[in-house]
Amino acid sequence: MKNEGSEKALQQVQDKAKLVRKWCLVSTTAANSGHATSCLSAADIATVLFDTYFSYDIKNPRNITNDRFVLSKGHASPLFYTLFAMAGGLPMEELKTLRKFGSNLQGHPMPDFKFTDVATGSLGQGLSAGAGFALLAKKENLAFKTFVLMGDSEMAEGSVWEAANFASYYKLNNLIAIVDVNRLGQSQETMYGHHLDEYVRRLSSCDFEVLAIDGHNYEEIDKALSLAVNNKSDRPFAIVAQTFKGRGVSFLENKDNWHGKPLSKDDLQKALKELGEVDDELRFELRSPRSAVAHPSTIESDARRSSVARGPVSSFPPASAPSKYSVRAVGSPSSAATPHYKIGDEVATRQVYGEVLAELGNSNPDVYALDAEVKNSTFSELFQKAHPQRFVECFIAEQNMVGVALGLSKLGKKPFASSFACFLTRAFDQIRMSVLSGGNIAFCGSHAGVSIGEDGPSQMGLEDIAMFGALPGTIIMQPADAVTTAKVLPLLADYNGISYLRTLRPKTKVIYNSSEKFTIGGSKILKQSKNDILTISATGITVFEALKAYEELKKESIFVRVVDCYSVKPVDEETLKKCLSETKKNTIITVEDHFAHGGLGDFVLSAVSQTGAKVEKMAVEQIMRSGTGDELLDAAGISSRNIIAKVKSLLK
Amino acid sequence: MKNEGSEKALQQVQDKAKLVRKWCLVSTTAANSGHATSCLSAADIATVLFDTYFSYDIKNPRNITNDRFVLSKGHASPLFYTLFAMAGGLPMEELKTLRKFGSNLQGHPMPDFKFTDVATGSLGQGLSAGAGFALLAKKENLAFKTFVLMGDSEMAEGSVWEAANFASYYKLNNLIAIVDVNRLGQSQETMYGHHLDEYVRRLSSCDFEVLAIDGHNYEEIDKALSLAVNNKSDRPFAIVAQTFKGRGVSFLENKDNWHGKPLSKDDLQKALKELGEVDDELRFELRSPRSAVAHPSTIESDARRSSVARGPVSSFPPASAPSKYSVRAVGSPSSAATPHYKIGDEVATRQVYGEVLAELGNSNPDVYALDAEVKNSTFSELFQKAHPQRFVECFIAEQNMVGVALGLSKLGKKPFASSFACFLTRAFDQIRMSVLSGGNIAFCGSHAGVSIGEDGPSQMGLEDIAMFGALPGTIIMQPADAVTTAKVLPLLADYNGISYLRTLRPKTKVIYNSSEKFTIGGSKILKQSKNDILTISATGITVFEALKAYEELKKESIFVRVVDCYSVKPVDEETLKKCLSETKKNTIITVEDHFAHGGLGDFVLSAVSQTGAKVEKMAVEQIMRSGTGDELLDAAGISSRNIIAKVKSLLK
Fold first, then answer.
1. Per mean pLDDT, which range of A295-299, A438-442, B13-17, B493-497 is the poorest?
2. How far is A201 from chain B (nearest CA, A)?
3. Considering A234, A565, A619, B234, which has the largest number of Cβ atoms within 10 A of its Cβ?
């Protein structure tokens, strides 16, 4: 705009911003809820972005060469929807369905709105997903840019700074963070109010290129976006924009107590009058995706575009990736796991995770591995050695790791993200949002349970099954031996959703032939006879305790059935019910190295709750301590000795 | 040391550091596990700290005027134990029990070691707890200093930066962060290696006073600690120390692949030989707590002390708090809640939370409230209005909020920490560590469940009961009405541990008289008759759905019992079993606005699992969407209509 000196162009973008504002107000009033004022502060920046810089095939949101726009401040969803509507993505009138039951225009962006890449609404997560997009662009030589629109309140979230450090460490100069500093949080002024320097200093310290601007000055916005898009440094770019919440409507602008509130119908009329005449036919004509507009002359000939010099896209090699991506991309299981482990061998399931993941990486180029700097414990380092280009070291920042994995998954990759089971709790909210985003990620939590021994309770994952289990649509597998691990891992690779593999620190004996078949929702009956009095349902390390108990009880002619519930969620309801019907006491004992609530026991209980069966849960009931694995299994009440005692108590 | 020019003094502190190193090596070899090299990098700093600056009554760890030492890099526990042993806190020989079953010297510091303030071992959490200590010192005019020893790897955790920004925002110039930059993480070099400037820049940007030093140079360490302790700025202080992992033993120092590994017995002998002669009798004579040494001359006359000028402690007013603190400090329930709500009134339970918390604050000066910038939604703002001095705005940084609350609780306060239920998932790891720390915190999660309506799934807490429920020793309450809320809140205040109150967004009808009694583990039978066919167990919003279903079913002469399980954990096993025995179909239907796994249903199942009763769980089974609360309750399958259908299906 600047160089054109065209007042007409400026007028047009101002008019478009006016129309954007109008629809943010109209849609929230129609919904009678929503965050109108949080939209207005960002309306000018977003308008210039869509009018001039955002390169996107509106007919094909899944075009891999599209720019990405992450609305990290998800409560500004009316703005998000309005932008895509004005770009031709949906009829303008549909905006009036905002927040209504059945509408895809939900209170915060969800993936049923087809232009949503990742669900937002839990603040501070957008930059991590954006970093995942930007990282993939780097890895695969894609020219697209990733824009992340953030609020100033969410800059207090540590996850933002994890993402910022990650982005600069990996030199993601194709990532553009826009901070909408509108000063007002939900209930009061933010930590730093309108002191832009506070954000500039922090982002600069994290090696961002940072520009502070007036977020309502079109020339400054345009210049900043132009510099950001043409960023020639090796640093990510941040635009810190001073804005006013409620901008454009006098009785809203920079006023307290308007967060998350729509206008009444009367106030809406007042506001629209203030905005003035709006040309309702104005629309955004989005720039074509960057890989398709590699020729500079195309850009110059386009009157809609800024004339501020734009670097040739050829600084990025042409995209080698397919122009469309599929969300489910992993090869068939049979190609991956050919377990060579022999019965009686002692191998840690965590080690098998690394071995088989590396193999999966051979057969499928879309498999990625991420780790939070414990790769020599989780054994993801074996994947790193085999496929260094597809391994992402995330350092000790689990929240950002999950966000990056989500970003990768939403562009068609299958990321496996690993850490200690206990430390995945650090990212519960990110895992939750991955589920809402329709993410496709396999998590691996190692060092599950008290069997880790001496490191003590802070390192014991004892609530991980409860965490993953609560979220809808998740899959949880806990293999007891190497063969199971090798066989279930490809199943998780092929599962399109959020799955969790729970691995063990100690070595365990191989108990299955490599020809055994394993399924999601399956189990293995390890011991059975016609004289079984009850069933012991175990998983992971406790399978071995159950087998020991079996042997001891057998000596006393007490016969129990032993089932390995390697599939914890879904649990094998059919087999469990069959066991109940075939044993004498209509009873299942569940035994697991997990806290009592939310673990295998509760899945088993739910599976058989309508049958009138009795279930005895054996699990960790209190905070454990350091000691050997065996000492702790016993102290926790889940050892073979404890199982024997429990069985005998039930015989009385 | 410097000004004394005393080579003897320097020699003595070097000798003490040698003895510290020896015991770190001896204890880990005795344990045959542990993080020896991570201790050695910090040994010199820690030795100078304990030798000269740490002011502490070793006979009384709970002396409120003691300095606080938080080992955020909890894996360096052998160093932690050795320091307190050399200070006279335990026999040196006890160090050889490290990591053994039954020893208090666990793999990572736990509170059974009496000098542990907060359990550590999940990295990046120490600074938040330290900020809690430092904040309390400011609030109560206590002179003690808080030292937090951090590793460089954990600086990648976002929670560290939440804490850093919190500390500078609240001008905690009594907080001293020491970053042990030993370059090597667990599996590789850290993000920034030995580039101290990366840490200096980031901490400076967060408004810390920052000093970079050679962490093995006693003069530099001494000067830095002296400046830190005498910090006259209004900023927190950080010492960024370049160190070497394994320092002092040539074959360990700055070498890869030694993380978390003890020396073999042979290697230990080699290492001890390298360390050279050590005077085994050397000990730390800790400086007295600061409030007791207010007179500068006392300091000068003490030969052990640095002669670097130390500001008079009188810059802090004398401590007004008791010199000892009790962990359980809240007044009796009867003093607080006098509900004035009348049956039929419509009041949101979240509002009652604020009202009653403010009252609790009147009757007990140890009650604090913290909120993550949603205080006008959780209604903790009512506490803020009544007790601004005891309200802590934590901004949108839930992880740090929990850490600060933990710090407050470990010094005898009773913090109530609130946010939306869904956003508490952000701090699951911190909540987990609060449980391990023996923290005394009441959490409040508002906006639980799909009943929030239009804001959509990202704002719905549907996994919070699973999260809090998995952790041992926690209490979970979900009141359906105002009276229940008012009555249970004082119970949580008096509960010494981690408790959780789940509040609702919509207003609900008052259904109880203010004379009703409520207990932890209690429930209320709302409807019953001799003809009841089964029991409906509900909690929170679904109590009203159950009551509606009851009325409809009654019209058809179908009688059901309705129980309000306001105490979700522990659930009222006795009443539920009684209901089973008094109803015809030996069946309980549980209905809750929470995901199906890990909620009330599983608590009920577990409670009656040994009776052979049948339990039908009604809960949210999939990701919900925006809509009205009523639309969503119905779509989720937990409305009165759904309950009626379920009851009728069971009659067939």
1. A295-299
2. 5
3. A565
